[in-house]
Amino acid sequence: MKDFRYWRPLAVAAMLGASWVAHAANPPIRMAQGVEYMCGGKTPAEAAFMRMVAPRWAATLEFGVSRDQSDAVPAEVLVRVRERYTGKPVMEATTASPYMLARLQPGAYEVQATLAGITLEQPLIVFNGVPAKAAFVWPSNIDFAAAAAGDAPQQQAAARIE
User: Fold this and answer.
1) pLDDT at 122 (0 to 100)
2) Which residues are CB-contacts of 55 (< 8 A; sequence separation ≥ 6)?
3) In CATH terms, is domain 27-161 a member of 2.60.40.10?
């Protein structure tokens, strides 16, 4: 009986520790132009977490490369969100993850996602209390390494001039 009394506090401490570790692994919430967003999904556990919390966010954006390269995760995706009818910029952020969740206000938006100089654009309509979703899938026949390398010398040259 005495042994059982000592195991209870130890089990509670272990559960709290595991809870803290699981919480620490969640992606951070960030801000861009006053809009909260969260990026993640590189690991299976993180992807499951992002899918679980997505219904609580106004917008879910998914990024990927065609099915021929199902293991490919986008490197640097530049995301621009603007109002559909006025063109007013709402948010601009960069992600290196397959999921981006954003707390956009209800409205009609145009979302541009640029990967290695190739921009895809999709409309997104956000209703109050109803999560919206857009998926951006780049074709697998693009040489992303060459496209990304093509940008690097320009960035280096600009760094040398300044």
Assistant:
1) 95
2) 131
3) yes
Q: Within 13 Å and on the Cβ side, how many CA atoms surround 81?
A: 27
CB count within 10 Å of CB 86 equals 10
Please state the φ and ψ torsions of residue 53, each to the nearest 5 degrees. -90, -10
Cβ–Cβ under 8 Å, residues 107 and 83: yes
Collect all residues with Cβ–Cβ distance below 8 Å to 124 and sequence separation of at least 6.
59, 81, 104, 108, 109, 110, 111, 132, 134
CA atoms of 95 and 85, how far apart (whole Å):
26
Residue 22, token pair as written in the block: 């699981």
Q: pTM (2 decimals)?
A: 0.71
Q: Mean pLDDT, to the nearest integer, of 110-116?
A: 93
Length of the chain: 162
**In the chain, where the domains are located:** 27-161
pLDDT score at 2: 53
Q: Rounded distance, CA 23 to CA 117, Å?
A: 35
Tokens of 162: 């300044």
